[in-house]
Amino acid sequence: MPASYAYLGPEGTFTEVALRTLPEAATRELIPYVSVPSALDAVRAGEAEAAFVPIENSVEGGITATLDGLVAGEPLTIYREVLLSITFALLVRPGTRLADIKTVSAHPAAQPQVRNWLKANLPDAVWESAASNADAARLVQEGRYDAAFAGEFAAARYGLEALETGIHDAENAQTRFVLVGRPARPAAKTGADKTSVVLWQRTDHPGGLRDLLGEFASRGINLMLLQSRPTGEGIGNYCFCVDAEGHISDRRMAEALMGLKRHCLEVRFLGSYPRADITPEGARAVHPGTSDEEFTRAADWVARCQDGRF
Q: Which terminus of the chain has a lower count of CB atoms within 10 Å, N or C?
């Protein structure tokens, strides 16, 4: 396998900035790809060891291109995650004034994060989506659009100027990125972990989603993300992307996944990996009755009952 990481390019994306915070990135060749699907497919094709892509932002939720790329195709595994605080700059060709801007561009996920600023400052500008924020900057450099919302750091790379900086509609906005590779044994649990799965209902019936989520709730497992995605099999047919607190080696998580496997048409395990938002010391206390020790004691009690030793 090549010692390289694919990422959502071109150079100068927030994705590249987040990727370079990983210590191992210094020992890998970092290869930009034009889209999230192409970066994920590079891993599936053996062209890259792993792909680093955005998966969620704190304003709009899940990044659909990434979720869909993990739902479909050959299985991939999330190894780790990175959180990056996001603020935008309005990048323009030198000499451009705010009054000159008729078209603006950025990745679709950026639009909800700058919508109010755009309405207040450039109400008549036409929005044009780009494959990434850095690609929008490149298109401004080429003269396709008048301005791009991107990281201020991308200005020098594309010969642009930051006409405005610190643009964001929501304070403390963050984007979550994940490192994705081919299926492998999960890393050992840290005590502050996350498990990601995709669930397909066996049948569509009243209370069906409640039944699936009950597998987590009955074991004291907190959910961090729940997002439906269409299966492509007609209106009303959805699968569910779930992030849950805990690691597959936790007894409560393992039993929840076994329950889901029994009841679901399909369960795709996307990985158990360290959380980026907290340390083990700051992790939520385990719900009473759901620790590994309590599961072990309960199993021992059942065994004694079966042996007539109650």
A: C
